[in-house]
Amino acid sequence: MKLDLASIDPKALGKVAVLMGGHSAEREVSLMSGQGVLDALTSQGVDAHAFDPAERSLDELRRDGFDRCFIALHGRFGEDGTVQGALELLHVPYTGSGVMASAIAMDKIMTKRIWRFEGLPTPDWRLVSSADETRAALAALGAPMIVKPSREGSTIGLTKVTSVEQCDAAFELAARCDPLVLCEEFIEGDETTCPVLGEGAAAEALPLIRIVAPEGNYDYQNKYFTDVTQYHCPSGLPEAEEREIQRIVVQAYRTLGCSGWGRADVMIRKKDRKPFLLEMNTSPGMTGHSLVPMSARAAGISYEQLCLWLVAQASLKL
Description:
Helices cover 35% and strands 22% of the residues. It is α+β, with helices and mostly antiparallel strands. The protein has three domains: 10-95, Rossmann fold; 105-121 and 188-306, 2-Layer Sandwich (D-amino Acid Aminotransferase, Chain A, domain 1); 125-185, ATP-grasp fold, A domain (Dna Ligase, domain 1), CATH 3.30.1490. The strands form three sheets. Strands 8, 9, 10, 11, 12 and 13 form a six-stranded antiparallel beta sheet that branches. This is D-alanine--D-alanine ligase. InterPro entries: ATP-grasp (IPR011761), ATP_grasp_subdomain_1 (IPR013815), D-Ala_lig_Van_CS (IPR000291), D_ala_D_ala (IPR005905), Dala_Dala_lig_C (IPR011095), Dala_Dala_lig_N (IPR011127), PreATP-grasp_dom_sf (IPR016185).
């Protein structure tokens, strides 16, 4: 994929707020993402400034003359349509998906319902509201089973359940993060992720990344704070298999109405190589361990070019 960078005048972008931090459980990661984006934009001559919604009112965006926002917030109150709605009311253009797509993609259960309706492959699941229902879900879905909050990211509150004795603790951990708890069929096989740039018919997938975590445990610590996880980009998968996953991911992205950019997580079932969509991230990480910049590099796009292109795409969606 080639980005049209020649037509972007950094000075014409005006005063840019990089929204980072915020109130979510992913605040620490968001601050790292935001600092990376801020450094990249300023290196390209953009008048960019850090803006933490946990410390400043969004009203100050208009009062202080900001012309657009780069959303580097992750999780709730940043990736779930709430900030997007506020920016629409303030008439401040922003990066990424609009209110509806952000809200739907943040809710894994709603996302899976839409994908299932559209005939897209996603693991079987149950929505549960108690430990008893979690045990019933395990009986229906089989072990191992994933228990996680429906509206969190970065594997926060997630448990891989292998026995009925783990169900109570797994439910309680997820429910502390979100009253909507998702029990999901575990797909054994290759773990991959695929970024998408653009909107509608112009949306394109970037190269696939195959993730190999120690003992298959791609948790919060191994995502952001260790160097033991292996990332393969090029993925090393057969070309036809990668192209098919990219096709499914772009379809999943368009189905949710996403725009700007996103990243879908996909498991490839070992026994038959069938891909299964897990979730769509509409404000992906931009840290030193993050996957969209890694995939972009494989496509010949630098971190700085990616940030500049994304902020140039900032718009109002309503």
